[in-house]
Description:
Blueprint: H1 3-11, H2 16-20, H3 27-35, H4 42-51, H5 66-84
Helix pairs in contact: 1-3
Amino acid sequence: MNVEGLIRGARGSRSLRGLAGPAHTSHATIVAYEAGRVAPTTDTLERVVRAAGFEVEPALVRALPAAARAGRGSELLEVLALAAQFPARHHATLRCPVFGPS
């Protein structure tokens, strides 16, 4: 889980001080969490996220074995190489068939 991004996303457009007050912490601590310099405890993370108006809902996701991850990575590279072979130029005007009487 990317705690930095989670807190930053939950904060949204709210100021650091605007989140720190309801979370019962300092704005400097929020900055440290968002920068990844300090890792909050689970309870602290939940308190900060709740102060931003969200809930933390943990979920277990089955991890892929290393071989499967490597296989998917090479498959993605093959798809990207194939996509690069298609032309990327588009006409200045949209050309489409005329339907019905004109």
